[in-house]
Design goal:
This protein has 191 residues and is mainly α. Helices cover 79% and strands 0% of the residues.
Length: 191
């Protein structure tokens, strides 16, 4: 396997490392730690875009990549949500629902791989992913603007919008989880 064929998986692994740096920088007691975290999140998002593009272009889609890419995405997104809970920006129960869905679906995917089955994502999962990404970017933008002292008078409006985005995210998370379990229910009957 050439370096170019391994590059998508390397980028996915780098996203996991960037997720760790995101969390570390998020909690550093620096004046602009949230800005640094936001930049790290953007860089991680670029690696997500590139790994898929490269894998498709070179025909280098692998079983490891099929598993690793969404896992790296989950680690990055969930790491951000946990940080937001710690700052009391979003309620913990929302992140618990998201975490529970991700553990369930990831567990099903791992089990599917062990029995030689690949269970593709359901259509509504794209909406879930988009709502999660939009929520994270919106919250990070809010934190950066707040860190720079730009939005003091609009604080309440941003917090209301954040909750709205998160309710939508939780809705798509629950519906996509139910849909995924339903469409792959035969997995539960295998021995």
């Amino acid at each position: 396997m050439t370096f170019l064929q391994r590059l998508p998986n390397i980028l996915s692994l780098s996203r996991i490392l960037l997720a760790a740096f995101f969390v570390i920088f998020f909690f550093l007691p620096w004046d602009y730690s949230k800005t640094a975290s936001f930049l790290i999140f953007i860089l991680a998002s670029i690696t997500d875009y590139l790994d898929g593009k490269i894998a498709r272009k070179i025909g280098g889609v692998s079983k490891l990549g099929i598993f690793l890419d969404p896992l790296a995405d989950k680690i990055l997104i969930l790491g951000a949500f946990v940080c937001f809970v710690d700052l009391k920006i979003i309620p913990a129960w929302m992140v618990i629902v998201i975490l529970a869905r991700e553990f369930l679906i990831t567990g099903m995917r791992i089990y599917g791989l062990t029995i030689g089955e690949h269970f593709p994502a359901v259509r509504i999962a794209k909406h879930k992913t988009i709502s999660q990404i939009v929520s994270v970017y919106f919250i990070l933008s809010y934190l950066v603007l707040k860190e720079w002292g730009i939005i003091a008078s609009l604080n309440f409006h941003f917090q209301t919008a954040i909750l709205g985005f998160m309710y939508l995210t939780v809705f798509f998370t629950i519906v996509s989880g139910i849909s995924y379990v339903y469409h792959n229910r035969e997995l539960f009957y295998r021995r």
